[in-house]
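Supplementary Methods. Inverse-folding protocol.

Structures were first reduced to a discrete structure-token string of length 273. This string, shown here, constituted the complete conditioning input.
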């Protein structure tokens, strides 16, 4: 191990003097935690009310549209409940605190140390993770180093959101989360009461707006548009939102058809050259 590596591993010394603003903030944080515990004990959650509120939220198309994510990994597409759903479930469950903090930023090495947490104040169940976020963004041709402050902030926030999501789900009852996922999926399939043929036409029009033709969608789903089901349209809604948010690209979800040698040369077409 080099001297530079050893020096980097050595923790920085704590400041010898704490400013007035820092001292006030430390006192405020301690008082806030104590107050949260007292309030949670005096106003415990009503589980039946929490379930009712969760069910009411999950039948709203606005939440269902954002309840799931998709992104590519190792040649496959990973999907699951999103941070938007996690935050709403934390609100419905009640007496839950969660957050994301940047503990340290090292511009020399191009990385930030972050912490994500979720805390059920009433049950005193807490989940947290500390992780390093490189100031880089993955793209075709290799990762790109980030130097703009806004880009670094957005990169940290995007990476941290996934940890916050997992922290929240770690402290919520699994049955509560599973029912919410099923309800949101059903809301997507129902499509707000619109007839299926109208929802199919809306989906086709939306994808045409981002350059995806109907035949590419039909190839992905394995059936013509006239045979699409409610599940197919719900899946397309999740894909469309993921493309809009930059979680996946159009080519990830709808690979362009391969052109054969015969198509290039015109062989077998019966047309004289």
């Amino acid at each position: 191990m080099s001297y530079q590596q050893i020096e980097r591993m050595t923790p920085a010394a704590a400041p010898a003097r704490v400013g007035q603003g820092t001292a006030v903030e430390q006192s405020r944080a301690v008082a806030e935690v104590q107050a949260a515990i007292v309030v949670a004990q005096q106003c415990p959650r009503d589980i039946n009310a929490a379930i009712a509120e969760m069910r009411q939220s999950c039948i709203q198309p606005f939440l269902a549209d954002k309840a799931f994510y998709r992104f590519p990994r190792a040649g496959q597409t990973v999907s699951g409940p999103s941070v938007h759903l996690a935050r709403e479930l934390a609100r419905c469950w009640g007496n839950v605190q969660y957050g994301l903090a940047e503990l340290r930023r090292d511009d020399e090495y191009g990385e930030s140390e972050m912490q994500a947490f979720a805390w059920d104040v009433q049950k005193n169940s807490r989940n947290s993770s500390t992780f390093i976020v490189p100031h880089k963004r993955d793209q075709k041709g290799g990762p790109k180093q980030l130097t703009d402050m806004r880009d670094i902030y957005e990169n940290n926030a995007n990476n941290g959101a996934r940890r916050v999501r997992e922290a929240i789900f770690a402290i919520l009852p699994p049955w509560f989360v599973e029912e919410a996922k099923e309800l949101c999926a059903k809301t997507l399939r129902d499509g707000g009461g619109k007839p299926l043929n109208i929802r199919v036409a809306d989906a086709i029009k939306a994808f045409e707006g981002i350059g995806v033709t109907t035949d590419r969608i039909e190839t992905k789903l394995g059936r013509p548009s006239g045979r699409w089901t409610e599940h197919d349209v719900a899946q397309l809604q999740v894909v469309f939102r993921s493309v809009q948010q930059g979680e996946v690209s159009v080519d990830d979800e709808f690979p362009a058809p391969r052109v054969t040698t015969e198509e290039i040369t015109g062989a077998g077409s019966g047309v004289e050259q």
